[in-house]
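Review box. Two proteins, two foldings.
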Amino acid sequence: MEHQLDEQADVIAEAQATIASDRATLLFANQQLARYAKLATDGANTAERWQQAEADVAARRAALQHDLDAAAAAQSSIGVLQSQGEEADGAIARAQAALAQARLNLSYTLIYAEADGSVANRTVEVGTYVQRGQVLFSAVPNQTYVIANFRETQLVHMRVGQPVTVSVDAFGGEATQGHIDSFQRGTGSDFALLPPENATGNFVKVVQRIPVKITLDGPAEALRAIAPVMSVEADVAIRPRPAFLARFF
């Protein structure tokens, strides 16, 4: 479209140059007519030359008017081309919006995991129709950790970062190493489906359990074999191990 506008601008410039030439020629023809008219009045010129000069002036005027009309048509074509350009821009914008919508719709066909891991408990097969909000599978992250429910009286000396030895029952008690990652801000019973209500006169103090997240460090082979809800035993080293015991472990 810009190329067409540039070509049309060249056409308009050429038409304006032609109009300038036509006006100069018409001016000369009018001057010639005035001279022939004076000579004819004085009897020094023939009526034929005078009439020819009048015809030449009329022809020059007609040529000027023709070129003026052509320039006006060329100028109006600029507006038409600009309107067409605006329509084309609108069509491009609509096409880009449709493309963006199509890409968005396509993205809805893909399921993205929040973290690397594996699929478990899959309930969908190829060709199955699914509904919005339907659970298709469970995603098990590669990062392995243990939620250990320690008694609140055991947390006195526990700190984030302390080393932990975790024994997995499924591995015959084989130990793997980890460290304390975080403590839950609340007891396990407080976040239960039916939390206990102790605001009564018959209050009996019960030791609560606090979930502690333990991130496992290795070995890698053991981490890949650990699955959710396995039973483990966790031993937290709340004090540094004496140096003389290092050779026994």
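Next protein.
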Amino acid sequence: MKFFFDFFPVILFFVAYKATDIYWATAVAIAATVLQIGYVLVRGRKVTGMQWASLVIIGLFGGATLLLRDETFIKWKPTVLYWLAGVVFLGALAFKQNLVKAVMSEGGLDLPEAVWTKLCVAWGIFFLFKGTLNLWVAHTFDTETWVNFKLFGGMGLMIAFVLAQAMWLSKYMPEEPPKGAAPVKGEGE
């Protein structure tokens, strides 16, 4: 559910674009991002740094799109956000901070340090790649294709990356005996 909550502004942007034009869609994306953060705050939850960054970036780039009537700015918005995320993931490693480990280990995931580092590097590179790909699509194809890519391509890439990551991490997960199975000799004694 969190996945779709995170994509809420993108989905509304897509729907608004299909119903109207890029400028209305941009206004809807700005409003949806404000509502999304407002919802998090009203629920008494912490707004993540990435959510705040997204609000600032959509405000700046979306605002420039609306004020200057130039869709180039909104097309740059995902790239700036993705590149920022990639630089933050990779840059934090330089300061001995692993942001992926900080988030994922809260759920009880215990991995060797080298695996955490590879995972953080993979996320950093993934976001840098995704930002670059967004620019290529935005400047190679028409706006209609870019809007479709923004929703379906962006979401598809994220799902594929998370699934590949889960498959890679599965080899590090402890194997649990089936429920009701007798413990192996030496276990639980």
